[in-house]
Structure formats: C-alpha cells, structure tokens
C-alpha cells in the first residue's frame, strides 16, 4: 500500500503561459507532491526563472529546441534523473509537435503521464496529407506503447481534456444518458461553436510561437481539440450497443491567413490604428501572402457524419473560430497571450436526441479582464457565464415546466471553491492536476482516473479528418472495427482502433 502522506516527485516539461497559470500554482497547492524538475527552452530562461521564484526544491534545465526526436543526450540525462530522484510522473506541456517524443521517453521509463491536448500534431498538417494522416498514426503508436507498458507496470496516461472534469458538461452527459436508457434513442445532431475571441495582427501571425500558425497548424490543434472531444463525450453518453456507428465521414473548410488578409487589409488597419500600424507591420501584402500560404488555419467549419450500415445516423456541425469578437483595442501585443491581449471566449452547443430531448449550452464572455474580482459573474457576459437549457418531450418530462434552466452554481459543490470569483475553467484544470497526483499517491485507483488515452481515438480521428478533408477537398472516411454480436461492448475499446481512407 502507498503511504498517502508520502510526497511523490514529478517533472514538468514545458513552462509556457498555460503551465505558469495552471500547472505551477496547482502543484503548489498540493502538499503531497514535489516538483523536482522543470524543463524549458533557453530562450524562455528569464520568464521561467521568474515563475519559479525562490523555489530551491525545483531544478531548472534549459535546452535548445529540437524537431521530432528527443536528443539522445537529453534522453539519457532525463532517464538518469528519473532513477536518482524516484520520479513517478511527468506533466508534458510543451509545443505539441514534440508531445510524441516526450511521451515515448516517459513510457520507456515507466512513468505516468499527464499531457496537454492535442495528443500530437505535425508541421504543415493543413497542406501535407501524410502529416495530416500521421496524427492518427501518432496516437496508435503511443497507445500501443502504453499497452505494452501495462503488461509490466501499472501507470496512467491522462490527456488534459478538462471539460471532462467540468460539472456542467458532466451534468449534460447525465441527462443524455438518462434519456437514452429510457427511450433507446441516441444523439442524432450536435452543433458546436467555440470562439477564442483573439485578434492577431498580420505580423503577429508570422512571428508568434504561442498557439502558432507558422508551423502549418492552427485552431483545430489549439483549443479545437477540446471541442472534438466534447462532441465525442456527448455522443458516447447516449451510445447504445446495437446503434453504435461503424463509420465516420468528415468534410471541412478552413479560413487561413491569406483569407484573413483579404477580410482586413493594410488600408483597413491604417484606418483603425493610424500610421503607427506601419511601424509594427513592415510586411507588404504580397510578402504576407507568400510567407503565409502554407500557414495553419485561423477558423474552420466541418460536418462530421456518423454512419451505421452505410446510412448517416448522426451529424455533428462544428465551427471553430480564432478570429471572433475580441476586446483588443491596442496595437502592440500584450505580454500574456493566454488570458490577456483582449481574448474573449464564446462557446455553445445544441444537442438533439431525436424527438425526446434538446439540450443547449451557452457560455458567453463580454470582456477580457478575467482576473478582476467581481464575484462569480454567472450572468450573460460574465467570465463564468454557463447556462444549460434542457427541453424534454412530455412522455419523459413528467409534467415539469419546459425548459429546465441550470447555471453552473446549481451543479457545483459550494464547498469545493468552484463557485468563487476565480475563472471556473481554471478551477477545473486544477482538478485535473489533483486527480493525477491522487493516482500517483494511491488515493484513487486507475479505474477512477478520467480522460485516459484509450478513450481518445475518436477526437484524434476527428482532428485528423478535418485536416485531410481540407487538403483533398473531399470527404475523409474512417471505418471502425466492429465487435462480434455476442461480445460485450465498451465504447472506449470499440473506438480504440480505426482504418482510414482519405
């Protein structure tokens, strides 16, 4: 038995804006964990040292960037550190292009993993079909390595899809599951919309490395993965053995930087910001278009169709936007590109479950000053606005008035601190870290751990599919291995393998 009071040692790889705002403070609030090592790039030395402050218990390694393979000397040095310090887990919060390299190293060293989304992406996935397909290949490679490790030692491989830990989304899944059990009716339609509300100027599209476009990927590989995963979670909540989809088709359309430059050109920017704009952006429109022709997507729309016996049984309409309503009014970018720089989030879902149930989720911020302490702010436009509308057919409504309306505070436990003035989503992200540490210390079992890698093929496939479809201008097709009729079906394992045709 593990001693629950004994401190376990973990490593944080990548200390960017998200890690500094979530992982560092989350780990500092947990008494039973020691952050033994932080790794980041030499170019980030000053900001990471400032974030660590006077924490003398945490070593800091600064390295040079690498492409896809972990440099042998770094791998050897890290493995030796793991043995000497008895490291139990690693948090991978790097640029996603190197997620696979670090995850493979961690699995080879029998470590439990908490990794940021997406599981992986690749350079030029908006233009290179092999790289777009490779997103699924990466998943299958990591999952196979993880399964091999489990034959020798029990670990977890968590993917930080934090909406799985959010009580609002959990409540919606419960409503969907309840109606599915009562009516035998699965979800047949989901409309999902997410806007980051960021306004990135042309020169910043070229230069910024946080949530970049310059590596040939964009919105789908940024926050978009969360939405793919949430759609899957809603569908899975209504999954009925005999009605599970066995095929998926994806068709997509991207707005890339060159389309954005047509929407707002240099003349428009000079009208907005005056002559000072030219001092910030020295690129001509011709130079911008040539430089950005293979850059990642800013906005995307997709239709994801699930099929059974060759017939479409569910349509998911997905709209993911970086270039949405924002609060930025200044020319030079802010220092905080994560929650600062005018970023305002809008998110909504419409879920139809045949004639029996319709659920809507609405979460709309109106301003970008998220750290001001103005209370819970659950009102429309507040930083924690999150409304759920549930409409039910009279057969199952049992005489209750329609719709039933819920706020997040109606569902959250007031004793957990989830209803205070902090940003709800950030509190949820702290919960992810706490669960990872609870597993490492033996407070919870592996069965209790949420968002493990074996349940992520479907959102990975959606993400790969939107890239493949945009490149080929055709539907991307995926078939799932169908279990024998007499087998018990667990949806996680059912969607644990796929064959792709693009």
UniProtKB/TrEMBL annotation:
InterPro entries: Gfo/Idh/MocA-like_OxRdtase_N (IPR000683), Gfo/Idh/MocA_Oxidoreductases (IPR051450), NAD(P)-bd_dom_sf (IPR036291)
Domain of life from the UniProt record: Bacteria
TM region(s), chain numbering: none
SUPFAM superfamilies, A to Z: NAD(P)-binding Rossmann-fold domains (SSF51735)
Domain Gfo/Idh/MocA-like oxidoreductase N-terminal: 8-125
Gene3D superfamilies in alphabetical order: NAD(P)-binding Rossmann-like Domain
PANTHER family documented for this protein: BILIVERDIN REDUCTASE A
Protein name (database record): Gfo/Idh/MocA family oxidoreductase
Organism: Chitinophaga rhizophila
